[in-house]
User: Which sequence fits this backbone?
């Protein structure tokens, strides 16, 4: 497809991708507020609750890169539609789960489905849009990230209030069914058709590379997911196994790439904007995701907030992100990484404001006092996620859009898992026997600010280097 002949249905195709993206992102934020309901309804223990949240992220992260490569090679529409159909079925299985173990298994399946869908969204934007239009498209995607993050806790809390604390969590999963069915119908009509069958047959899928990278991702993520429940020395040893697997994977990709297209081309890591943008994404998501994890613990467990009220307290951050995401992505190609750096600085200022608000007003009114600094942090966050993704993928060849986007998002999932593990460890360590949730929350915020500050340092280094050159 040439730049002179843009796809006539590109904006409709984007809308379809955003519907499915909304569904997969909603299932991250909506489940957090439903955990107390799951615990009372199914009698789930702490480890099972952790796997209900983290298992989804684990299997989603496992499939992002191979699903991106599959979309590059076989066409995005069939992979996208397969993922959406599987997500709907897994959501039904979640809603009907008779036990906590059954719910964990269904959530793992849901994560696999989300892993099929997610890289097709960024890959479709890369395929169908160029220049300023691509920035606008990623901006709309960022807006959906913000809206789904905002709506998730509110919708989850409302459903639990409507259907009761014992069984209300089931409705949280059934919400995906009409959204997914709508996405399937629209995808068949508006997403570009896959390439001819004979062309698909010649494309390589690099199964050995897929297995090696998948095993490395599992060995990286499982120690973070199991941090609080698995105390064997084998857990940290998995990091060493992951390092060895990654070295073998790089060796294999180098050899495989001489004659065929590997699952991730190592040429991507010669693109400076891609490498730096991936690093910024990993560090920012380590802080960004952990914020809501410890905020929910503080408000619901520490202060006894109901689910809907905890969701409402977190909303200003998401609203701020939704307000600036589209604006940031429209201007990022002109402003470059300095715009991302400005957004990260706003996030740090907002986190500092939250820390001060909790220090001064740690009681039941804390949700009101943290609203303004969370809004400020959210306004900054809207200038980070989508603009950084636009810059990171801007110089990536279109034929590698899916695998490049999948690798970027895998890094973000690893960052999220690491951030929750590190910040959660600091939070629970500071909680101690006296149960001072406000003090523990402030300790956790320091960890979050450190991750965001590291992302800021990387973004500033990139911006200054480009300014000099």
Assistant:
């Amino acid at each position: 497809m040439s730049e002179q002949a843009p796809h006539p249905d590109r904006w409709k195709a984007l809308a379809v991708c955003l519907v499915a993206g909304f569904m997969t992102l909603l299932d991250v934020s909506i489940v957090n507020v439903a955990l107390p309901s799951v615990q009372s309804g199914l009698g789930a223990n702490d480890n099972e609750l952790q796997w209900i949240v983290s298992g989804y992220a684990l299997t989603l992260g496992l499939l992002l890169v191979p699903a991106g490569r599959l979309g590059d090679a076989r066409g995005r529409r069939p992979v996208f539609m397969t993922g959406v159909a599987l997500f709907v079925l897994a959501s039904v299985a979640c809603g009907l789960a008779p036990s906590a173990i059954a719910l964990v298994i269904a959530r793992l399946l849901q994560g696999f489905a989300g892993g099929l869908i997610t890289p097709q969204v960024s890959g479709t934007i890369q395929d169908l849009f160029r220049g300023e239009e691509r920035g606008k498209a990623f901006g709309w995607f960022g807006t959906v990230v913000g809206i789904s993050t905002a709506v998730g806790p509110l919708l989850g809390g409302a459903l639990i209030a409507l259907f009761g604390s014992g069984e209300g969590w089931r409705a949280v999963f059934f919400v995906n069914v009409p959204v997914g069915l709508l996405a399937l119908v629209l995808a068949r009509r508006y997403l570009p058709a896959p390439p001819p069958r004979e062309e698909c047959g010649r494309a390589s899928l690099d199964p050995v590379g897929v297995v090696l990278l998948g095993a490395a991702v599992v060995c990286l993520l499982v120690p973070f997911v199991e941090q609080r429940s698995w105390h064997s020395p084998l857990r940290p040893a998995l990091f060493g196994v992951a390092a060895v697997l990654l070295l073998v994977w790089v060796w294999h990709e180098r050899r495989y790439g001489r004659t065929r297209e590997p699952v991730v081309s190592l040429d991507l890591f010669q693109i400076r904007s891609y490498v730096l943008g991936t690093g910024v994404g990993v560090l920012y998501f380590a802080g960004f995701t952990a914020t809501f994890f410890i905020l929910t613990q503080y408000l619901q467990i520490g202060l006894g907030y109901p689910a809907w009220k905890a969701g409402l307290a977190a909303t200003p951050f998401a609203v701020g992100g939704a307000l600036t995401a589209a604006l940031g992505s429209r201007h990022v190609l002109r402003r470059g990484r300095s715009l991302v750096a400005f957004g990260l600085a706003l996030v740090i200022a907002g986190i500092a404001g939250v820390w001060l608000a909790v220090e001064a007003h740690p009681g039941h009114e804390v949700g009101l006092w943290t609203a303004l600094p969370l809004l400020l942090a959210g306004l900054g966050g809207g200038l980070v996620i989508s603009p950084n993704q636009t810059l990171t993928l801007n110089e990536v060849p279109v034929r590698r859009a899916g695998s490049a986007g999948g690798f970027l998002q895998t890094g973000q999932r690893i960052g999220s898992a690491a951030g929750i593990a590190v910040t959660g460890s600091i939070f629970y360590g500071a909680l101690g026997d006296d149960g001072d949730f406000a003090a523990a929350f402030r300790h956790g915020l320091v960890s979050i600010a450190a991750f965001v500050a590291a992302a800021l340092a990387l973004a500033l280094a990139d911006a200054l280097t480009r300014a000099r050159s």
Notes: The radius of gyration is 21 Å. Residues 10-205+263-468 form a domain with the Growth Hormone; Chain: A; fold (CATH 1.20.1250.20). The chain has a mean pLDDT of 85.
